[in-house]
Amino acid sequence: MTVDRANAEIVPRGDYGAILQAILDEGICPFCPKNLFKHHTKPIIFEGPHWIVTTNFKPYEGTIHHFVLISKRHVERVEDLNQNEWLEVHTHYQALVAKFGLSGATILWRSGDTKLTGASVVHLHLQIIVGAPREEGSAPIRGVVGFKKEGGA
Hints:
Blueprint: H1 5-8, H2 16-26, H3 36-39, E1 44-47, E2 51-55, E3 65-71, H4 83-100, E4 106-110, H5 114-117, E5 125-130
Antiparallel strand pairs: 1-2, 2-3, 3-5, 4-5
């Protein structure tokens, strides 16, 4: 399985479920570099030897910025990264901070079993999510970060 459509439909984002179904039908990994632009419509912001940095083409509602760092190598878990891949993540994050003047962000890794992570794509990626400052009348940005047992706190 290259995508987990069930996770994508928990917090609906337009036609994202239909796009994932097309990817399932094609039997491809949508984040492997040779397939990325078959369905992804946003340009690359930065690219290095190990990572592609782009804007999430279906950002969470209410985000000011929603970036995705995608491993060029098809791996599914953070623990499979080598030292150079780790260091490049830091480099790209610093570049995003500088380019977009970020003063805060949520960094969300999607690593491993989608039944645990809530990810919709089975390929290691991380999301850098920037919302507005919390103030009276604001609401949280919603996204799936995992699951809890029924009745769990």
